[in-house]
Design goal:
Order of helices and strands: EHEHEHEHEHEEEEHEHHEE
Largest sheet: 5 strands, parallel
Strand order of the largest sheet: 2-1-3-4-5
CATH class of the largest domain: Alpha Beta
CATH topology of the largest domain: Rossmann fold
CATH superfamily of the largest domain: Response regulator
Number of helices: 8
Length: 231
């Protein structure tokens, strides 16, 4: 059975967050809350939600600024939920990377339908629920990883790192991109994180006597998850 999708609500109004929690939990979402833009960006980087509901009128930074910063390093689906209803503001938000826009007050049924729609369009939705490369299988719905049919326990960070590599399987993912997507936009210089976690990940998913390794180092550039057909 797949896990409940996680929704992060970024809104400074306590009553709105409470209402959204009720609506979302009744419809099988796990709900996280942030009451500011900076906290929201941090929570997205650390807690990896499946979808974000973002208010534009935040106390510390405008929601548009949050959206633009987020799109520098993440493609998580974002639904704007705002009292701003001018067409030019909606267009600006969509052009900046929002997946949809709903104005307050909102109908719960419409909000839920729009959330389902943007999640269907997101990478690794139901049509891409599994990834396989040689002896490695990843189930993106249940967040489980198996090696030769046996489940391997990964930490949240190890799983996030493997997921990014799988999303770009066969291609080199640079150090900066991995640091940005797994640890957030402020971690691009922290290459020691990457070396340590890649070592841990290799120990868990590689088979010692296998003729070909799944994880390859591209010296000075990044890492690559090798597809089975590669030589």
């Amino acid at each position: 059975m797949s896990e409940k999708p996680t929704a992060l609500v970024i809104d400074d109004e306590r009553q709105i967050r409470k209402l959204l929690r009720i609506v979302l939990e009744e419809n099988d979402y796990r709900v996280l809350e942030s009451d500011s833009g900076k906290q929201g960006l941090s929570d997205i980087a650390l807690r990896r939600p499946d979808v974000v509901l973002l208010d534009l009128g935040l106390p510390d930074m405008d929601g548009m600024a949050v959206l633009k910063r987020l799109r520098e390093w993440s493609r998580v689906p974002v639904l704007i939920l705002s009292v701003r209803d001018r067409p030019d503001e909606k267009v600006a938000a969509l052009d900046a990377g929002a997946d949809d826009y709903v104005t307050k007050p909102f109908e719960a049924s419409e909000l839920l339908a729009r959330l389902r729609a943007i999640q269907r369009r997101a990478p690794f939705g139901t049509e891409d629920a599994y990834f396989q490369a040689g002896h490695l299988t990843i189930d993106f719905n249940s967040h489980t990883v198996t090696v030769k049919g046996d489940e391997v326990k990964l930490t949240a960070t190890e799983y996030s790192l493997l997921k990014v590599l799988a999303q770009h399987a066969g291609k080199v993912v640079t150090h900066k991109q991995l640091l940005r997507e797994v640890w957030g936009p402020n971690a691009e210089s922290q290459s020691q994180y990457l070396r340590v976690y890649m070592t841990h990940l290799r120990k868990k998913i590689e088979i010692p006597d296998a003729p070909e390794k799944l994880l390859k180092t591209e010296s000075g550039i990044g890492y690559r998850l090798v597809l089975p057909k590669e030589k």
